[in-house]
Amino acid sequence: MSRITTIALALALASTSPAMAQPEGIPKGGPPGGPPSVFDDTYVTIGIGGSYSPSYDGSDDYDFSILPVVIGSIEGVDFAPRGPGFAVNVIPERDNAKVNFLFGPVITANFDRVNDIKDPVVEQLGELDTAIEIGPTAGVQIKGITNSFDSLTAAVDVKWDVAGAYRGMIIAPNITYFRPIGRAAAVSFTLNAQHIDDDFADYYYTISPAGSTASGLPTFTANGGWKSAGGTIFSVVDLDGNALNGGWSAIIIGGYSRLLGDAKRSPITSIRGSADQWFGSVGIGYTF
What's the distance, CA 202 to chain centroid? Predict the structure, then answer.
């Protein structure tokens, strides 16, 4: 399962709750100046969705996955899924503020090529270890870009592997435009990218002489740099016509990511996979 699909589904399910202010551009408390949300301080949103995405970054084999999601806020401290993992925003949103700041910890797991590698040639390179990535996430959200209800958020995650898999760092900036459509629906457009260091690139995209012998792929030494860039669009519809009262919501997501640099040039991608990474998800969430 591709990490970007989980991020996209989490973003979409978070938007079904009007109280969420997580570092992907979701406004909190409903439209500014509108009716107050009953979930402003404490709420829980649970959701489940199905996704169709590459089996690992750079693969041209696709998997269907079922993804559970839990999102919430406790006394103004928000938490949301993050790819797979979670992020926390510890800065409460100020009432009627046009500009809000986001900051908190983020922890994610990277399961790329850990198991169930569909490509028989890439499988000969061996399974990798799960990476546990921890670091800060920070951003700024500006409300009222074109009307009283939309928002623009710029944020970045900076994470280090602490599990001893690739032992490196990844930086993931993103920018999101979010726009409610009446009380019942919303759309969001996100642009995102990933920058990796040499340790990350070497672990996932280098082919050693031993790996070349086992797989038949040419040797390749991968260096860090920009790993990918892409975009996501989602739409969400509250099923009772009022997003401010919680309840059921349905989500449809589509997205595309393009591998760059040595992640693209590696034979794992250029010979056995594809630099073009498409994904789609549908889901449903319920806010208590």
Answer: 23
Q: Are 33 and 45 in contact (CB under 8 A)?
A: no
Give the residue from 168, 257, 271 showing the smallest Cα distance to 220. Answer: 271
pTM: 0.85
Query: C-alpha angle 98/102/233, rounded to 5°?
Result: 80
In the block, residue with structure tokens 């995209």: 205
User: 10 Å Cβ neighbour count for 48?
Assistant: 14
Cα distance between residue 118 and residue 109, in whole Å: 20
**Location of structure tokens 């909190």:** 28
Separation of alpha carbons 4 and 215, rounded Å: 27
**Contact predicate 170/195, CB 8 Å:** yes
pLDDT in tens, 205-261: 999 999 999 999 999 999 999 999 999 998 888 898 877 777 898 989 899 999 999
